[in-house]
Amino acid sequence: MITAKAFVLAVTILSAALAIGIGTIAPALGQGKAISSAVEGIARQPEAADNIRMTMLIGIAIIESLTIYAFVIALVLIFANPLLQLL
Amino acid sequence: MEHLGPVAVAEFCGIPVTNTVVMSTILSAFVAVMALVSTRRLQDVPGGLQNALETVVEMLEGLVVDNMGERGREYAPFIGALFLYILLSNWMGSIPGLAAPTSDINTTAGLAVVVLLANHFYGLKKKGMAYLHHFLEPMPFFLPLNLLEEISKPLSLAFRLFGNITGEHIVIAVLGFIVPLIAPVPMLLFGLFTGLIQALVFTMLAMVYLTQATGEE
Questions:
Q1: B3 lies in a domain?
Q2: Within a domain: residue B2?
Q3: Number of domain units in chain B
């Protein structure tokens, strides 16, 4: 018989893995789009390369924060699980 | 992996003192001492330490003026202090035996709250009571949404910085656990890079918020 604690732990681990796994897909696509546009821009106008690179890095870091939110959720689930205290 | 996050190392009047607090105190003291030592005997033709620190200050001022225009010069000390503190904290985590203060959610939340307060303070100072009117834009019933935005700004700032630095540390720890020898080295180098980018992103967003709060419209 599965105890309640074991069930909550199993669901927690699964949801943490799903959170980071699914949460990575969309930002990865967005980053790919941003980088491809930046490379196109640099190829078309090499003299603006520094400016474009800077803007791209900032934009990528901001897109990446979406993944980071999913990662923080996963961290909370694994290291500071709030659900276990409810049992 | 078991020492993820801050560890209490001492107790001061019943309040636990974590290693990240100690690290950030050391960092602040280091920066302050460097600034004091380099400005003790100012010279017209700077050399050595004074030259190096003047380069840093000019670079920070250039960053602020590039992004906020000439009127951003008065915020340069605030933005520069944020940038230096976050950058050095991020890089501190790469030194063995030291911990990055920004890998503690309390540090990043504190920084985000400082940005939020500075935002409203400078907004009120620059525009007076007219500043409060922007909460009612574009329609009065947008007030709850605008208030929600004000809450989500520091939340996203704090989580972004904390998540990036902590994630970096976990990846390095896991790699070092699997292949202890050479494998973590490229990841450590990448950590220096992301530390710089995250410091840049944090200050860039702080500047964007400040420009929004103090801009003439």
A1: no
A2: no
A3: 1
**Three-point CA angle B157, A67, A75, nearest 5°:** 85
Who contacts B53 (Cβ-Cβ below 8 Å, separation ≥6)?
B34, B35, B38, B39
Q: What are phi and psi of B152, to 5 degrees?
A: -75, -25
ipTM of model: 0.74
Residue B1 domain-assigned (yes or no)? no
Residue B155 belongs to some domain of the structure: yes
pTM of the predicted model over 0.90: no
B201 touching chain A per CB within 8 A: yes
Q: Does B135 touch chain A (CB under 8 A)?
A: no
Q: Which residues of B touch A69 (CB under 8 A)?
A: 156, 159, 163
For B155, the domain range is 8-214
Best probe of the B interface among A64, A66, A67, A79, by most B CBs < 10 A, is A64
User: What confidence tens digit (pLDDT) does each residue in A12-50 have?
Assistant: 999 999 999 999 999 999 999 999 999 999 999 999 888
